[in-house]
Amino acid sequence: MTGVGDRRVFISGAAAGIGRSTARCFLRDGWRVGAFDIDSAALDGLAAADTTGRLTTGHLDVTDPDEWGTRLAEFCPDGRLDVLINNAGVLSSGRFAEIDLVAHHRIIEVNVLGTVNGAHTGHRYLAATRGAVMVNMCSASAIYGQPDLASYSASKFAIRGLSEALELEWKAQGIRVIAMWPLFVETAMVDGMDTGATRRLGVRLTSDDVADAIAAAVVGGHGRLPKVHYPVGRQAQVFAGAARFSPVWANRLLNKMLAD
Q1: Which stretches within 29-149 are classed as H helix?
Q2: Quick one: which of 65, 77, 153, 215 has the most CB atoms within 10 Å?
Q3: Minimal CA–CA distance to 115: which of 149, 181, 163, 70?
Q4: Residue 225 in 3-state DSSP?
């Protein structure tokens, strides 16, 4: 990567929650930060609180490839980008058949297509930057399909597969691709959520916890054995580790018990 003062990170979904905490975390560590979201008013609040002079904010609808192209060109005028964080996401919880189809479509459009748009549009900037990293926001719900979070879980399985594939494709170009795997995080996305898993496991992570994990994964992980998936928090680490060695029937039973 480049020198400390010149390192540049582009974050989608940065107006609130994990994205906002991640922007603050990288600003604290001396990065130039591009924070983008559809919520311009919340971004204005983030900008007003910034004292570093290293923050750029702007409107970004991640489902719009043209807007991705515009924002990246504005933030990366020299064609370089150290880190792209595909963070924007939405969630609807409840029984699959009881959730409006429009909401299901929105989850796929934002979580999956938004990430595909970011990866595809951002690739040339990352490829032009030594030691570049793309961070995709995955979830512990990609370990096994989650009842009451079916479409969200499916979207994170897609992010898991995309991250694994691009890590292999882009390695020769010097781009690391990693996926962050938190469980439930105390943000507006879980406000009012009442599922079997949240009742049994609780909400034990803060957005700052996830932001710190993202920053640590970005600056670390340059060893000989590449690491793609980063479970965040003790619960996610335990579930991810167990899933690697447990038979499918055991994973299904565990998730059924948590959901009931």
Answers
A1: 40-49, 65-75, 101-107, 114-127
A2: 153
A3: 163
A4: coil
Q: In order of start, what are the domains of the chain with their CATH numbers?
A: 4-259 (3.40.50.720)
Rounded to whole angstroms, the Cα distance separating 96 from 112 reads 18
pTM of the model: 0.89
SS3 of residue 81 by DSSP: coil
Rounded mean pLDDT for each run of 10 residues along the chain, 260 residues in total: 74 96 97 98 96 97 98 98 97 94 98 98 98 95 87 96 97 96 73 60 76 94 77 73 68 66
- Residue written as tokens 């938190």? 182
Q: Tokens standing for 134?
A: 């793309």
Residue 210, helix vs strand vs coil: helix
d(C-alpha 103, C-alpha 105), whole Å: 5
